[in-house]
Amino acid sequence: MTGAHNGRLTVVGLGPGDGRYLTPEAVDALATAEALYGYGPYLDRVPPRVGQSRHPSDNREEGARAAAALRHAAQGTNVAVVSGGDPGVFAMAAAVCEEIEAGPAVWRALDVVFVPGITAMLAVAARIGAPLGHDFCALSLSDNLKPWELVERRLDAAAAAGFVIALYNPVSRARPWQFGSAIERLRRHLPPTTPVMFGRAVGRPDERVSIVTLDAADATVADMSTLVIVGSRETRLIARPGRTPLVYTPRAVAEASA
Amino acid sequence: MTGAHNGRLTVVGLGPGDGRYLTPEAVDALATAEALYGYGPYLDRVPPRVGQSRHPSDNREEGARAAAALRHAAQGTNVAVVSGGDPGVFAMAAAVCEEIEAGPAVWRALDVVFVPGITAMLAVAARIGAPLGHDFCALSLSDNLKPWELVERRLDAAAAAGFVIALYNPVSRARPWQFGSAIERLRRHLPPTTPVMFGRAVGRPDERVSIVTLDAADATVADMSTLVIVGSRETRLIARPGRTPLVYTPRAVAEASA
Lengths: 258, 258
Prior knowledge:
Two copies of one chain form a homodimer. In chain A, helix 2 links the parallel strand 2 (35-39) and strand 3 (53-57). Helix content of chain A is 26%, strand content 26%. Chain A has seven helices and 13 strands. The mean pLDDT of chain A is 94. Chains A and B meet through helix 4, strand 5, helix 5, strand 6 and strand 7 of A and helix 4, strand 5, helix 5, strand 6 and strand 7 of B.
């Protein structure tokens, strides 16, 4: 139906896990939406509501999902697209913008709102200490949409300049060797004792977090849902008797590595 | 008092503004704390509770504040340290880890918990579109704790490798020229039309967000509370009749810039 209003599309970040990370702004957006779009497992995290239609889709269909949601919103509907973590970090927000730019003029007239969420690197870092406590970067290892040579160039630049590196999308069925190759590459720049942190399903019952050294990092530990943080030369470990160590990157840079 | 338990220190991220960004995990941590520590204006965001002591301190006293909170927790108290945004991103988490490493052994026996929050770059990006939609880095412009030459090296590396750059702490009273110098530096690497985004006080009544081009970026617009995002060569603007433009960085990298 074409209502009195223009329609609205809200892109909602659910955070990494259960409801503990869901902001009030996200709760409101989910409660007022007339239609929900999203990757099936993310939609499953949102309790059903009477009168709200649900449109799950497969992973790797971001463009088609965004376009379907925009078409629905352009009919005068209040539509929410749900995204894991933060929608602006390797998630649905860029896909929605791409479709708006390529789509019909009416999509530019829609009310489009982005609701931020806790992205995976923040949740994993919080479980471990403060590994992102100093300058850092976030890099997707997926070479579906950029050449692998560019990934390598960015890994080189980030490690050589002393950024802590958060790696999103380390592995998928179609990309089995890339993460191992990235770890090899980082070994050229960083000491063997550099902390490497794996975080999976933070805030969910099957949460798994582990800390190893760069020389012992086993690429087969990571899967599609793993977020990896590779420390810089400054990143340190605090041993704690009877507890897991804290890993952090100090706010000050030592003279030697500057 | 020295209770039956060891004491607990929780470092809580409040997010960037009002309660709309406060996660349930953060709400719980604030509700159960017996003592609250933090920079005054951040503490002021937390409603007072009977039986809960409050210990505000000045900005730039992170180390002393962390140590005071740890001493209090070591007496068997449930202490929360509040932080704007995410505590792990240029905020209190690293300061707490530094003090634990340098402090008495009993501090390593404490229960220490980090509660993530929406960090400024995610909130500012969400107001604008999806400028962090592809690889990006977060860099503090403060040279209080690292040499300015290192800041310059990181700006060069990040811009040349095609990262979008989020700049934290662009300006302070003691650091008046650094942000202007950083903008000059980035002009060597990036086209004059590169979008530069300023965000201040997102989610608060005095919120201010603006989008300019790199050649027109005026360093005097930024203050201590401003978060700046500088696009990459890929970052694009979608004009929208009667609305502010959307700025986003596409998921795919064009052949030309790869």
